Amino acid sequence: MAMILCDKVNKHYENNHVVNDLDLTINKGEIFGLLGPNGAGKTTSISMMTSQILPSNGTIKINDLDGITKRKEIKKIVGIVPQDIALYPMLNAIDNLKFFGELYGIKGQILKDRVNELLSLVGLADRAKEPIKNYSGGMKRRINIAAALIHQPLVVFMDEPTVGIDPQSRNQIFDLIKLLKSQGITIVYTTHYMEEATALCDRVAIIDDGSIIALGTVEELVSDVYGGVVELSGDNQEEVRKFVDLFQQESFTKDIRLSGSKIEMVVEDINKNVAEMLEALNQNDSNLKIINMMHPSLETLFLYKTGKKLRD
């Protein structure tokens, strides 16, 4: 059953189109990843889903609530973990969480119990009375997540929640996210780290320049590049075109394209097929050279579809 529905959602500022025809269905209880480079439109997309900003056009529904006419109701059922730490550094963790709880109308013993529950959940009950300014980056991130959970939301949006933290803290956040999923909470997770999407997400949408270029499970997306991508380059355009025609006829070639003097090929089995390609080049006394071999991954898929690296 759908928790989030986006139908032809756009956001533009004058002539700057930030999000283009966003079509998404995010299911209840899944971890859904928005993967893309900085500036791709990830933050703008979740800002519209959480009713922080309005779309220029299109339809958004959260738990069947209209994203334009039911904004107040939506804010009660979503939690937001922003990319930047949103805590009061001079206050301790308890007072920070109490402050955010009171914003949602939670009071008294119910609030006290909820704060204690969340501090235990994020593993910081023993540091609860220390001011946030004394916390490490990873500890601040975990309290940020606790603040987003204070009102028991149905869906939590996490915008690059592991930026600037060490690997141990990142693993602690991963464990926390998996625990939230086990409790039936829907997670929308933005990142530009392909390994995070691979480790965490049930499904992933890859976004670039405001548009979704691929959508599916990690396995489905990686299968789009079959056994990997091979790049060849040569100085002689006629020879390059000759080998495009030659390799196009090979059964191991799943896709091939010519870009200037460079050939890009999606192949069936990169290790086996490269040997076959080298043999063909040698038999024809070719000057073409294999300049890059990329094994199947989300990074390879993104590079093949956009011509750019996820993290330039």
> Which sequence of SSEs, written as H and E, runs from N to C?
EEEHEEHEHHHEHEHEEHEHEEHEH
Number of domains: 2
- Give the number of DSSP strands: 14
Distance between the termini: 37 Å
Structural class: alpha/beta
Characterize the structure shown.
Helix content is 38%, strand content 28%. It is of the alpha/beta class and 312 residues long. Strands 6-7-8-3-9-10 form a six-stranded mixed sheet, sandwiched between helices. A four-stranded antiparallel sheet has the order 2-1-4-5, covered by helices on one side. Strand 12 and strand 13 form a beta hairpin. Helix 5 runs parallel beside helix 6. The model has no long low-confidence stretch (mean pLDDT 94). GO terms for molecular function: ATP binding; ATP hydrolysis activity. It comes from Metabacillus litoralis.
